[in-house]
Amino acid sequence: MKTGVKLRKQEAKIKEAMKGFTDEFFRWMLKSHLNQYDFLTGHTALFESQIEVHMAPYAEQIALLTTITGVEKLVAWTLIAEMGVDMSVFPTAAHCACWAGLAPGTHESDGKQMTGRTKRGNRTLRRILTQSAWGNTRCKHGYLKAFFLRIRARSGWSKAIIATAHKILIIAYGILKNKLPYQDLGDDYYDRLNPDRTIRRMRTRMAKLGYEVTFTPIPEPTIQTT
Length: 226
Hints:
Radius of gyration: 24 Å
Largest sheet: 2 strands, antiparallel
Order of helices and strands: HHHHHHEEHHHHH
Strand order of the largest sheet: 1-2
Helix content: 55-70%
Oligomer: single chain
Distance between the termini: 61 Å
Strand content: under 5%
Number of strands: 2
Shape: extended
């Protein structure tokens, strides 16, 4: 469905690209592909309409889940279909993540972690959550984007995607358990979490560019009383 929407937005460009010499066989092939596309998109819409009917009793949970950045209706449907809405079946969020196959492995030797591989779990849930994580990489702002960038800087893309998918699952677990909407912590959350470390990092970056910078805290505004 998303691909179809993107193609429709670029209809003028596609028409322009199609100008040129086309023989009868080429036109037949195009018509065949168009018929197949219309058939598949029509059936996709039909299935989604049926799913929406069956998901109607969970409208409240779906509305709460879609407050998470990168979690659209289809993702919320999948979370409910695979996990249910009663989180008491999982003792903790960590148990839920382990069941989904999004908990990092714990193979250690002499206290040193040797691998960060995830365990096998629910493939459907893992697939939809990694897609949601990829969606967050395209967001301009937000806590989950900041979380992804933080993990990517030290562990690479693939591990950052899995870590973000894991984070989304933990958030979804908390939402379904507490019945409260998602509250984004902001893309500056980690800067605010440890401001001294942030200042040291910024000072180091400026020094590499050949600048010596002194940071002075901004004084708190005074409140005048009458």
